[in-house]
């Protein structure tokens, strides 16, 4: 679905629909009810979705279109190959260096000091790379950038700000150093971003690069498939990775894109597995022993309780994480390297003090694998504490280390740290059940449920359960994992932004999620002072609309008294109509001088496409003489007009006082007796006719100098009555997008995010206009709430 910057939503009304034609027939005089109008608008949204998804596809013939699709498939195939190798290499490198770090710690007397030095050095180097790169898109997880690329259209010139070869290289370099150091960070989010960067770089190398990059619809599909590749390879989970990418990055997903995404994800997963097998690594990241019956039926109740606990903890984690980031944001940005060094030294000290390492390494993945097995590390068996006590201490420390590391100015993932927190939480609950039960309890199963539930709570996804099952191979735990994931996600989804949406807000990227959580109605974003126009009005009212409002769409009401919505007209159509009418009377300069803002927009759309020819010396001389002559004539007319005004003041001082009183009355918005009122606000408060404003006080609102003959023509045109439905450029759209007055924010979410409409009208009883909500107002409201 595309944004409606280039699609005329108003002109896309289903006028050719048989039902619509029937309703507009002469024999059918009854107006459609509000519900019917809303139904028609939503009925047309499906058609608009298809049109928007193809609006930029300007290929000339069918053969070229097929070639373009083949180019896309080839592109995604190579994205899968490259991503599989890159992700496999990064995982292998981090495992090897993590094992080296652990050996360094345990093999020497000064091992703790060596660990602090190496951890701090690697983290400082990681932060230094990001600082020197000077790319905001390389900081933190990278999933906010991926989501921004998929949920919003971008121009070709905007992509390098979010995806590029430089961003990919900086991300991989910083990520490997941070992950090897032992920080509580993951690999998943940054590697997904790198996968999307790979697809963008390959797209620029294709013969059809220009066509592809100028087509936001195709690029969004490519980015969505690339995100699925990144997640599938980094988890070695093709199904769960694809579903996770859909839930995290997409408001909706094109069914036609599933095959491409699965093809690319499968290719990447195969390459990833081949790479790991050649390196004598396990194809599954967290292989566990298969258990045929891992739980009893009565344990489902405990799994539900675990889902509730995980959801509450996830909600607290999101609040604390965002609060800490907002509190430390200035310090972290001002001293990125120093803050990174302090956190790295503290992390190394805690790893040594709490024995959070083994022979396999000291990374977060080692902790997760241990929690899915016998859990000898996190239970702190080397200390004189109970198993539950050791797990609780490890859980609290893991939460602290994750919050500290994930807010640094480095490239870091969050999936694996959150997986470790959830696994430790589940392990605590499972151990408590084991201590109080006489039956066989599969404690690692609780760790799986806790991991799936906590990730679902922080990311607002259900597919985390599928990823956990694919990573462990314990297929019989799918039902408990789904139970925990659904409950935890339900607890946090209505009370907080997801971790990745918080990242979007922190980086200034667009997100409508916050509005869904902060309001159940339209009171915060409803514009009640919307300018409307009646179906029969004067040309002067059109000037008043364009001069006194920045609206892009104007509602058309039946009359000022009943304020019933009957359609809408576009601002640009109104301007083009005024240009056409005044151009026919040779006074186009009046429109251009009065509606300066609309004129500048119109000129910017036309002038870039015009290539002026260089003038000859003789032509430049003639043009200079003409400009000088026009300037002199303008000054003479202004002087004559000033003299006339001065003479009128001397001859008729009473008339001047009377006109001044009228002008003051008009400017305050009070009604003037004897004048017509055609434009209004939605509440029925009349706005003055523009005729008097333009004919008094030397044409208020315009800097155009007019001759007496031109003034007469302007007066006649401004007072001319028009019927909007009879004017081709002003014919109203009879089915604008509307929502009932007491709707929820979900309706706006569908219209703005899926249908991509620029604005909607809010209706009360009997179709009366209550106001308008625009996409820009929603974004402005979001930013004000965040600030």
From TrEMBL:
A GO-annotated cellular component: membrane
One Pfam family hit: Voltage_CLC
Domain spans labelled CBS: 526-587
Record keyword Ubl conjugation present: no
Annotated region described as Disordered, given as residue ranges: 1-41, 652-681
Compartments where located: Membrane
PROSITE patterns: CBS
Start-end of Basic and acidic residues biased regions: 652-661
Transmembrane segments: 73-93, 113-130, 222-246, 258-277, 298-317, 337-354, 387-408, 414-434, 446-469
SUPFAM superfamilies given in the database record: CBS-domain pair, Clc chloride channel
Protein name: Chloride channel protein
UniProt organism field: Spumella elongata
């Amino acid at each position: 679905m595309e944004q409606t910057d280039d699609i005329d939503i108003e002109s896309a009304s289903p006028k050719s629909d048989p039902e619509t034609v029937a309703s507009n027939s002469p024999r059918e005089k009854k107006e459609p009810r509000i519900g019917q109008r809303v139904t028609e608008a939503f009925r047309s949204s499906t058609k608009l979705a298809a049109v928007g998804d193809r609006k930029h596809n300007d290929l000339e013939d069918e053969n070229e279109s097929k070639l373009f699709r083949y180019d896309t498939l080839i592109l995604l195939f190579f994205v899968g190959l490259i991503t599989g190798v890159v992700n496999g290499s990064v995982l292998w490198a981090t495992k090897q260096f993590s094992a080296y770090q652990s050996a360094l710690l345990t093999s020497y007397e000064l091992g703790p000091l060596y660990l602090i030095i190496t951890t701090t050095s690697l983290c400082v180097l990681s932060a230094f790379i990001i600082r020197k790169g000077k790319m905001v898109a390389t900081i933190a997880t990278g999933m906010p950038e991926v989501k921004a690329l998929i949920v919003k259209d971008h121009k070709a010139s905007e992509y390098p700000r979010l995806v590029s070869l430089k961003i990919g290289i900086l991300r991989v370099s910083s990520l490997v150093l941070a992950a090897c150091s032992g920080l509580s960070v993951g690999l998943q989010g940054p590697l997904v971003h790198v996968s999307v960067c790979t697809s963008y770089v390959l797209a620029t190398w294709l013969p059809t690069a220009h066509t592809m990059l100028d087509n936001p619809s195709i690029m969004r599909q490519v980015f969505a498939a690339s995100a699925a590749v990144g997640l599938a390879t980094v988890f070695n989970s093709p199904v769960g990775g694809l579903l996770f990418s859909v839930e995290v990055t997409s408001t909706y997903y094109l069914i036609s894109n599933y095959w491409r995404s699965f093809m690319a994800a499968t290719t990447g997963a195969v390459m990833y597995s081949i790479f790991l097998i050649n390196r004598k690594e396990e194809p599954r990241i967290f292989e566990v022993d298969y258990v045929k019956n891992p739980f009893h039926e009565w344990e489902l109740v405990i799994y539900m309780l675990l889902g509730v606990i995980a959801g509450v903890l996830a909600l607290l984690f999101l609040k604390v994480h965002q609060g800490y980031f907002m509190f430390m944001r200035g310090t972290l940005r001002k001293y990125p390297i120093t803050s990174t060094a302090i956190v790295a030294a503290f992390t190394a000290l805690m790893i040594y003090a709490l024995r959070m390492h083994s022979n396999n390494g000291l990374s977060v993945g080692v902790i997760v694998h241990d929690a899915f097995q016998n859990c000898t590390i996190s239970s702190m068996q080397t200390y004189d504490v109970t198993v539950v006590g050791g797990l609780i201490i490890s859980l609290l420390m893991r939460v602290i280390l994750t919050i500290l590391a994930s807010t640094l100015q480095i490239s870091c993932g969050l999936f694996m740290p959150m997986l470790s927190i959830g696994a430790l939480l589940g392990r605590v609950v499972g151990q408590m059940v084991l201590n109080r039960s006489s039956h066989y309890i599969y404690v690692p199963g609780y760790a799986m449920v806790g991991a799936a539930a906590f990730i679902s709570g922080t990311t607002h996804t259900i597919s985390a359960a599928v990823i956990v099952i694919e990573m462990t191979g314990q297929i019989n735990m799918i039902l408990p994992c789904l139970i925990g994931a659904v409950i935890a996600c339900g607890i946090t989804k209505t009370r907080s932004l997801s971790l990745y949406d918080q990242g979007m807000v922190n980086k200034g990227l667009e997100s409508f999620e916050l509005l869904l959580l902060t309001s159940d109605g339209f009171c915060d974003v409803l514009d009640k002072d919307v300018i409307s126009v009646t179906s029969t009005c004067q040309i002067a009212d059109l000037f008043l609309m364009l001069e006194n409002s920045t609206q892009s769409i104007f509602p058309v009401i039946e009359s000022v008294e009943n304020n019933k919505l009957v359609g809408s007209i576009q601002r640009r159509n109104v301007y083009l109509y005024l240009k056409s009418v005044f151009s026919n009377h040779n006074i186009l300069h009046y429109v251009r001088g009065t509606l300066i803002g609309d004129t500048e927009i119109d000129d910017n759309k036309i002038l870039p496409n015009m290539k002026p020819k260089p003038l000859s010396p003789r032509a430049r001389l003639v043009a200079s003489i003409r400009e000088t002559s026009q300037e002199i004539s303008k000054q003479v007319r202004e002087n004559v007009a000033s003299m006339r005004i001065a003479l009128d003041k001397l001859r008729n001082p009473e008339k001047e006082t009377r006109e001044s009183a009228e002008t003051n009355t008009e400017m305050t918005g009070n009604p003037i007796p004897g004048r017509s009122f055609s434009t209004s606000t939605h509440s029925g408060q009349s706005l003055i006719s523009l005729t008097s404003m333009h004919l008094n006080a030397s044409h208020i609102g315009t800097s155009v100098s007019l001759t007496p003959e031109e003034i007469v023509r302007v007066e006649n045109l401004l007072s001319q009555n028009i019927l909007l439905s009879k004017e081709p450029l002003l014919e109203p759209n009879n089915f604008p997008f509307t929502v009932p007055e007491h709707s929820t924010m979900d309706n706006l979410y569908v219209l703005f995010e899926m249908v991509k409409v620029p604005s909607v009208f809010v209706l009360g009883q009997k179709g009366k206009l209550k106001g308008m909500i625009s996409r820009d107002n929603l974004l402005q409201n979001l930013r004000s709430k965040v600030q």
